């Protein structure tokens, strides 16, 4: 993931101007040295002790691209050293840790935000604008399907609740963004299907209740071979006057009711205009640019921790529901 972040910075002229990488920290020093060479990062401090490298380089920003179990300690150290911190997702491995990160950032007077890069793909921004236009009326339901046979190797194949915590949170966050509603409750069934190469929880089905009587459903699997969906999921968004379909890639189809008679009313197609703001459709680069702009201009990034914790709460409520086999309210 660190490579993805650095490539995003290198590909964006504004970020190239705004950001200079001054240090690399890794428990494996050889990996850090190899990384520096691959990206021609000269005159950078390389070390395995985060506090020592922060003390030596005194950076404005810490990019936290560690395994989730290390996140709380890494972010806390960065904030203590006066850094704004941008973290990989998930925000934390527990809701209590997420709340602690919100508290620590507020106490330090620094920004802590999460890379929810799916918010910044063209399709999601395009749908948000389309919904706001009122073209299909008031949103009543959002349905998502995610089915991919992903062979990662490494820590993901050992994680508990791997789909809900490491991947589904992207879709949960995007759905919350599109609906512009707070989550209220969830019922979730989780499983690890026969043939799964994951240790736990590679598949899940969840029903969320959102404010305003909006329903969001999620069906997903990371061990579904044979018919992969997009990484962005396949979406059906239902409004009071019509429906939008998105395949998670480049195909959009929307229709609204045009007739007033008959068992099935006549429909009329609706154009789904492209996203207007190109700067907010570049995935990782847009998240980083949004974060840097907030620092420079004194604003708040869209994926700030005190907002993103609502998406984290969706994931942990789904996990609790799967454990208890009960509907769980989301606080």
UniProtKB/TrEMBL annotation:
Gfo/Idh/MocA-like oxidoreductase N-terminal domain segment(s): 19-111
For this chain, one GO molecular function annotation is: nucleotide binding
Q: Which residues form the GFO/IDH/MocA-like oxidoreductase domain?
A: 124-244
Q: Any keyword Phosphoprotein?
A: no
Q: Which domain of life is it from?
A: Bacteria
Keywords, A to Z, come to: Oxidoreductase
Q: By what name is this protein known?
A: Oxidoreductase
């Amino acid at each position: 993931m660190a490579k993805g972040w650095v490539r995003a910075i290198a590909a964006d002229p504004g970020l190239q101007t705004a950001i200079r990488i001054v240090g690399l920290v890794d428990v494996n020093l050889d990996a850090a040295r190899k990384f520096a060479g691959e990206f021609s990062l000269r005159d950078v401090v390389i070390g395995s002790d985060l506090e020592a490298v922060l003390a030596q380089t005194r950076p404005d920003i810490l990019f936290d691209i560690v395994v989730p179990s290390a996140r709380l300690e890494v972010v806390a150290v960065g904030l203590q050293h006066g850094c704004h911190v941008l973290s990989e997702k998930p925000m934390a491995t527990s809701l209590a840790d997420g709340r602690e990160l919100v508290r620590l950032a507020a106490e330090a007077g620094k920004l802590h935000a999460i890379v929810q890069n799916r918010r910044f793909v063209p399709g999601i921004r395009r749908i948000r604008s389309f919904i706001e236009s009122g073209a299909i009326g008031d949103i009543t339901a959002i349905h998502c399907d995610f089915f991919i046979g992903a062979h990662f190797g490494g820590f993901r194949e050992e994680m508990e609740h791997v789909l809900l915590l490491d991947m589904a949170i992207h879709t949960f966050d995007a759905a919350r963004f599109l609906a512009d509603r707070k989550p209220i409750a969830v019922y979730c069934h989780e499983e690890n299907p026969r043939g799964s190469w994951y240790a736990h929880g590679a598949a899940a089905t969840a029903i969320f209740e959102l404010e305003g009587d909006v329903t969001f459903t999620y069906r997903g699997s990371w061990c579904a071979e044979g018919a992969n969906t997009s990484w962005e999921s396949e979406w059906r968004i239902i409004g009071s006057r019509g429906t939008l379909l998105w395949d998670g890639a480049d195909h959009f189809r929307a229709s609204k009711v045009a007739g007033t008679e008959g068992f099935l009313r006549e429909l009329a197609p609706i154009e789904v205009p492209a996203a207007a703001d190109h700067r907010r459709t570049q995935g990782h680069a847009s998240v980083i640019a949004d974060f840097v702009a907030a620092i420079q201009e004194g604003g708040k990034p869209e994926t700030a921790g005190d907002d993103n914790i609502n998406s984290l709460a969706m994931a942990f409520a789904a996990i609790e529901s799967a454990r208890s086999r009960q509907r769980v309210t989301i606080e």
